[in-house]
Amino acid sequence: MTNYQQEFISNLKKYRKEKKLTQARLSELCDVTTSTIGNIECGIAKPSFDLIIDIATVLDVHPALLFSSNPIQGNVSKEIQQHELLLEMYKKLQGYFSK
C-alpha cells in the first residue's frame, strides 16, 4: 500500500467519524454499496476519481485534504490553508515526476 493510499484511508476515516457517519450512511450518500466504502477503508479497493469527489462533497472537505499528510487545523485562515495545501501537493508532484 502506498503512502498516498494510507493517508487517504486515514483521512477518510477521520473526516467520516468527525461527521458522525457510518460506512453504511456514507455509502448511501455517495450512492455506492457499503462494501465499497469498507473495502476502500481496508485498502482492498481504490476509489474512482468521481467517488473521491463524491466522498469529499459529502464530508464537506476539499478533495485534496483526503490525501494530505498534514491535516489543516480549523482555526487557521482559509488563505493559509490553501497555500499550505498547494505547497504540499506541489512537493508531492515534484517528487513523483523527478523519479
What does this structure look like?
The protein has 99 residues and is mainly α. The protein has five helices and no strands. It has helices at residues 3-18, 23-30, 34-42, 49-59, 78-97. Helix 2 crosses helix 3 (34-42). The radius of gyration is 14 Å and the shape is globular.
As a whole number of angstroms, the C-alpha radius of gyration is 14 Å
Return the domain count.
1
Helix content: 55-70%
CATH architecture: Orthogonal Bundle
**Poorly predicted regions:** none
End-to-end span in angstroms?
A: 18 Å
Number of helices: 5
Encode the helix/strand succession as letters.
Answer: HHHHH
Give the CA-based shape.
globular
Average the pLDDT over all residues and give the rounded result. 84
Number of strands: 0
State the secondary-structure class: mainly alpha
Strand percent estimate: under 5%
CATH superfamily grouping: lambda repressor-like DNA-binding domains
| CATH class group | Mainly Alpha
What is the CATH topology? 434 Repressor (Amino-terminal Domain)
The major beta sheet can be summarized as: none
Tell me briefly what this model is.
With 99 residues, the chain is mainly α.
What is the secondary structure topology, with strand pairs?
Layout lengths: L2 H16 L4 H8 L3 H9 L6 H11 L18 H20 L2
Helix pairs in contact: 2-3
Question: What descriptors fit this protein?
Answer:
99 residues; mainly alpha; 434 Repressor (Amino-terminal Domain)
